[in-house]
Amino acid sequence: MNDIFEDRNNEREQDAKWYVVHTYSGHENKVKANIEKMVANRGMIDDIFEVKVPMEDYVDQKEGVERLKQRKMFPGYVLIKMIINDESWYLVRNTRGVTGFVGPGSKPIPLTPQEVEALGVKDKPYVHVDYEVGETVKVVEGAFKDLLARIEDLSADKQKLKAFISIFGRETLVELSYDQVTKI
What we know:
Layout lengths: L1 H13 L2 E7 L4 H15 L5 E5 L2 E8 L2 E8 L4 E6 L3 H8 L4 E4 L11 H6 L17 E4 L8 E8 L4 E8 L2 E8 L3 E3 L1
Antiparallel strand pairs: 1-5, 1-6, 2-5, 3-4, 7-8, 7-11, 8-9, 9-10
């Protein structure tokens, strides 16, 4: 029964498009969390599939010490992969912190595949892997490329794992997607 639901959900997700939502500056993560909570509470997983706050890594140098940090690529904006209908539009539009969809009037305009790719948002297929907590993997993509990571936690439904990476002589817990790592 669960496999049927996943297949139906995957077929429906292929029809979904990415939209840009304008938020109050500084409220992007709150908006993301609120939308995800409402989607789960109202059972709208067949209409709203993913919410992202695009982030970029950068190196901050203070007093001769380099630190890897993250910042929002587009402050005041959140990306949502969804199928637009009256109910999904209403849920997103009336989320606390959302000022509206990007588009003329009240009509949301989906991003083109080229725009989605330029923003670094990838549609990732579901990947089944055999990772285990405590296992060491190699990072093959992203800011931590070529570093080794020790898996601390796995989240198969989100296709992500949390792992410790040694950065500047310290163990740092980072979140990586399954396609960013490989077994060694």
